[in-house]
Amino acid sequence: MSRILSPPSTFTGRLKYLGPGFILSAAIVGSGELIATTALGAKAGFITFWVIIVSCLVKVALQLEFGKNAIYTGTFMMHNFNQLPGRRWGRAHWSIWLWLSLQGLKLLQVGGIVGGVAIVLHMAWPAVSVNVWAILAVLITSFLVYRGHYGLVEKGSLVMIILFTAVILVSLILLQGTRYAIHWEQIKSGLQFSLPTGLVAIAFGAFGITGVGGDEIMYYNYWCIEKGYAAYTGPNDGTPAWAERAKGWFNVMYLDAVLSMVVYTVVTAAFYLLGAAVLHRGGAVPEGYEMINVLSRIFTETLGPWAKNLFLVGAFFVLYSTLFTATASWARVWGDAFGELGWMKFDTAENQRRSIAILSWILPAAWCILYLFIQSPVLMVILGGIATSILLLLIVYVSLVFRFKELPASLKPTLTYDIFFWVSVVSILMVSAYGVIQIL
């Protein structure tokens, strides 16, 4: 049965079809924001605030290219990777093999997130050990998402976004009544695009870890398709009517992506300001997940014992939202990749549901086992961050192919869009080149 639907033309009409961005925002705001962003504020003070804002804003152009590709092809990302020009090994394109080679480190990264969730829960209920909390967290998550229903993932993500955004913003507002209050002059100093020599490395690192990453950009394809954007557009029959529908659903997707960008930018900025205001003055920068405990103690000292629970609620939903959406997203992208490699069947709706269900149990179990053996969540997250940086370079390449090789001529964007796209590409390449130079 055809699901072709004329796109809404008004702002309020488009709001009814938002959703993929909710899932992306829940995935993006995780350990990087809670740990790395807060630590940067603690080290640098307010001076590098602009780096965080720019980092969150410029990468969204690549996300838009992947969203558009989902709409005009209607096919999943690993299938589209397998159609790229270039060398193949066996059944798969080199890009799929590169993605697969990075997944060992990525497994460690999400294992670190499992550890973070368990640590926060243990802080709230110390009678239960961290290891037991880790096991319970992944079992509950697998049970919630294994059925593969898009609606549950979207609604769950939206609820967690509302909760962690509210808690973090309330925390920031309450801070204004303490000796750590933030003043406009401090924020203004962080928006002047200045960068002391000693903070260059820290700033480049922050640019790489905040905002939308390579993983989330890939996930966006699956969620746009499951939301129905591609089905509403219909298959490309070369007619002007199809092009008009595609452009209309592009506009819906643009709004979805931009609003999600606003959410994760606001939350990331709030975490940075907390670190800069509360920790920078003391000169001490707690490492890793100890940041959670230190921030909670500072809040109890300034606002009273009740504030620890408020902060732990925010910390839990920041970390758990990443675990929840990672389980749902990984099950899809891994199932798709295994389908292209011939290791699983992912060619029909029924096979897709079965693969997602299986992987929704297997992947979280692997994350949990890795954490239980390694017991070093911060190191696990950092190692995964290395793979994320490499993956982002692959995303840049694929985005260029999508924009200049595969995008139908009838859907060519405006010059303004292309300028923003190239700013994004060049920014990411510059940061990556700097990282390589530092390593060498």
UniProtKB/TrEMBL annotation:
One of the GO BP terms on file: iron ion transmembrane transport
Claim: Transmembrane helix is one of the keywords in the record: yes
Keyword check for Transmembrane: yes
Major site of localization recorded for this protein: membrane
Keyword entries, A-Z: Membrane, Transmembrane, Transmembrane helix
Places the protein is found: Membrane
Superkingdom of the organism of origin: Bacteria
Membrane topology of the entry: Multi-pass membrane protein
Ranges annotated as spanning the membrane: 21-40, 46-62, 96-121, 127-146, 158-175, 195-213, 254-279, 310-335, 356-374, 380-402, 414-437
GO-annotated molecular function: cadmium ion transmembrane transporter activity; manganese ion transmembrane transporter activity
Gene Ontology cellular-component terms listed: plasma membrane
Protein name as catalogued: Nramp family divalent metal transporter
